[in-house]
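Researcher: I'm comparing several assemblies side by side, and this is the next one on my list. It has 723 residues spread over two chains. Same procedure as the others: predict the full complex and return the structure.
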Amino acid sequence: MTFDPESVRKDFPVLRAGGLVYFDNACMALRPATVVDALVAYHSEYPACGDRSLHRLGRRVDEEVALSREAARRLLHARRCEEIVFIPNTTYGINLVAHSFPFVPGDVVVGSDQEHNSNLLPWLALARHGVRHRAVPFGDLDALRAALTPEVKLVAMVMTSNLDGASIDAGAVIDLAHRCGIPVLLDAAQAVPHRPVDVRALDVDFLACSGHKMLGPSGTGILYGKGEWLARLRPTLVGGGTVVDSTLEGATYLGAPECFEAGLQNYGGIAGLRPAIEYLERIGHAAIAEHERRLTQALDAGIRRIAGVSVLGPSPDRRGGITSFTLAGADVHQVCMLLDQSAGIAVRSGQHCVHSWFARRAVAGTVRASLYLYNTLGEVQTFCESLDSVRRVLA
Amino acid sequence: MVCLLTLLVVAVLATFSARYRPLAREAFGCVLRRMTLRKCTTGLDDRVRAAITGRVMRTHPDLARFLHRHLEALAWTFVLLSVASTAHLAYGFYNFAHYGTCSGPVRRGFCVFDPTGARSRYSGIRTGHHEPAIAPGDGDAPSLGAPDARVVVIEFGCYTCAYTRAMQTVVDELATRAADRVRVVYRHFPLDGLAVSAGVPCESPSNDWWPWREEAPAAAHPGATEAAVAAACARVQGRFWAFHHLLMTRGCSELGEIAVEAGLDVAAFAHCRADPGSLDVVRRDFEDGVRADLYGTPTFFVNGRMLVAPSAQALEDAVRAAQEETAR
């Protein structure tokens, strides 16, 4: 279950020129040529509407969307394609559930205390409808058990934290919630790109992930929902493509997924999602996870030798491809910019959209290096050496 | 100050490209905050610091460390230099607008607005005169034209001044064309400031003038006073205009040869030049010029109206205006 990252790199146009060490994959992954080709093909060969037009271009769009939906179903091991809703990004998917779920005033949504804003703010926004959010310590099953009171109607939790790469025991969380009759939504933006995720094995009710974090085009994502749960949602973003018929008095809505895909879609992006998924399938998620684990261990060992470095989160073999750290006495943004300017290393700095976590700890932010299948041990070594040089400049 | 320096650069770039306008707006906001003694909160200064330091880091890590630590001080230095440079530029603009050359009344050195020097029409001098200007009379100086003409054009000139010499054809044409209506008077204003420098070759202008130097650039026009004294001595023999025209056309480096060519009694001429009293005529002209607040040659007074290095047309216009005024 291994692959040669050097040969993989040849498939990524942006890496061919050299001079770039891309360690910002938790934010946005790079795209292989097949994805770029698919995007170009849509815009140059069949730039038409989907699900509406009966001409040959329209039919081609429908075919490509159907193929991508099947690829997404396969990726997540969903039962049916109707359980796959195409969305622009994970944030959109979580908002879609938040505003479509049949909440009533007094209901509670439970999450962790390490949620990305995308899985926190949508629930906080429901406060105006009388729905409250309750946070439990990340990964603490006992706290979760205690929090699952009768008024809890949904558990919405991050599967792998974009902050430090730590993952929850998703199976245990879902099992615990289901015992209380509570459905679970997983924010899997940092999980699906990096390891096998089987929604049927997990028995998860909702799961959202982004295409642009798994080699796909930006502006694409997948919302998985169990058929019975999607049927219970009340579509809130409606319009063209969501109805069977409409009158001036009302409308008859289509079923999932169409009723959640209002208006013309990002057809080029959706078409580009399929080659991205196929690329990941060809390499294999297990091989990708193992590759990232090996790189993360090397990176962790390398930066811990540098004076003043403090690494967040669990041991490297449990962090996926993410390593968040601080450098004593140095501004994290300065570290980020100096790595970029001096060595062409792209990392992320700041609070990574998990402001609530940093606010409670009075930490200004971290530098985050996030790895993926095309990163190499050589790049890790370059990163460690460059970080040490930056430390000497900033010391 | 890093923000201010950034603003100076990106403001220029933003003028030509929308790409830099958000950055220019950010830099402007940052500068405004700094001017009100608040910290720049956008991180622009940090980004600029990192951009500079990071590039230098690749090849000179120690220099990068120095830059990272002292960039603010360096930025202050550049800003102060920029302010000084801008002030100097404004001074150049002022001089150009007022005197036609960047360097002020004593024109020396390269002027970016007039790189070929084509717009310059006079040689300058700093006399140090600060009293109210007094319009000069003819000072019993040599003149051409009708003695009772109602329009009197008094020229203050210098034989080492290329612009005085270039203007001579205009003056001659005026004196010939309007001899019955205009009297043209020539008075000496040697640009070496009456510095008698025997033996120094005539006409060797120097370019080492700086605006903050107050002293008169005596070395700028060596031989100017000697040439003026020689002309005064030619006048003693009644040969002023012949000698004057030869000086204006050929320059003043060979006074002896010119004296012969002008038909002077060479022995009397030499005796006159050697007489310290001969300088008095030139001194009187020069001092009248100083009192009139002259700062360069050629300067003309048309019935008392001062014209510094006028074009031929400007001189013509002034003469016509004076004629019309006196005709009323």
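Model: For your comparison table: The beta strands of chain B are 123-124, 143-144, 151-157, 182-188, 296-297, 299-302, 305-308.
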